[in-house]
């Protein structure tokens, strides 16, 4: 064999098909039959692998709530609802917001991204084991903490229960200015 030179084509290749059989005709027929028998299963296996991979990607990237916490209530106070802090550490959002809620509620937190830049924090009163919603005549100020995993970026707009902080400030008779005790 001569040394390779990219400027000169290598035309000393053997002609196809080869003059001598590489395999017996019987072996070739069995190989073709086996390939045809496996073809439907192979395509199903490939489809299943593609679906599993796409589900795994979705499961890894879908934002989810790791924790929701409420502070102790400050009864019958007039502190404005407001965003206290928001930070992003790697792919985790940490959000702290103050809001006025009923004192006796059994609250659960969740969220939804309405758009790429708009996050809606959802705080709902849940019924007890008998299906009864707790409620009483006073409202309290709570500090809520949301920890959201797999967040792509910091949201530019944050809503609480589909409403702006401004709308939540004036909810249920709360005033714009703090009322001295």
If you had to describe this structure to a student in words, what would you say it looks like?
This protein is of the alpha+beta class and 181 residues long. The protein folds into two domains: 23-61; 64-173, no CATH class. Helix content is 23%, strand content 32%. It is built from two helices and eight strands. The chain has helices at 25-61, 165-169, and strands spanning 64-70, 74-75, 82-89, 92-102, 107-113, 118-125, 139-149, 157-160. Strands 1, 2, 3, 4 and 7 form a five-stranded antiparallel β-sheet that branches. A three-stranded mixed β-sheet has the order 5-6-8, with no helix packed on it. A hairpin with a 4-residue loop joins strand 5 and strand 6 (118-125). The longest helix has 37 residues, at 25-61. The radius of gyration is 33 Å and the shape is elongated. Mean pLDDT is 80; it is low at 172-181.
Summarize the structure.
The protein has 181 residues and is α+β, with helices and mostly antiparallel strands. It contains 2 helices and 8 strands.
The number of helical segments is 2
Mean pLDDT: 80
Largest beta sheet, briefly? 5 strands, antiparallel
Percentage beta strand: 25-35%
Order of helices and strands: HEEEEEEEEH
Overall domain count: 2
Low-confidence blocks of residues = 172-181
Number of strand elements = 8
């Amino acid at each position: 064999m001569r040394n390779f030179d990219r400027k000169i084509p290598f035309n000393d290749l053997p002609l196809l098909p080869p003059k001598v059989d590489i395999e017996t005709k019987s072996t070739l027929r069995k190989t073709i039959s086996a390939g045809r028998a496996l073809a439907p299963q192979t395509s199903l296996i490939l489809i299943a692998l593609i679906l599993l991979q796409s589900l795994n990607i979705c499961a890894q990237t879908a934002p989810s709530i790791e924790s929701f916490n409420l502070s102790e209530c400050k009864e019958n106070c007039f502190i404005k609802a407001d965003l206290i802090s928001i930070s992003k550490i790697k792919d985790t959002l940490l959000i702290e917001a103050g809001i006025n809620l009923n004192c006796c509620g059994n609250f659960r937190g969740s969220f939804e991204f309405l758009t790429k830049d708009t996050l809606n924090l959802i705080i709902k009163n849940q019924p007890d084991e008998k299906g009864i919603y707790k409620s009483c005549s006073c409202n309290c100020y709570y500090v809520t903490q949301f920890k959201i995993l797999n967040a792509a970026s910091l949201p530019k707009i944050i809503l609480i229960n589909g409403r702006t902080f401004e709308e939540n400030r004036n909810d249920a008779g709360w005033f714009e200015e703090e009322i001295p005790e």
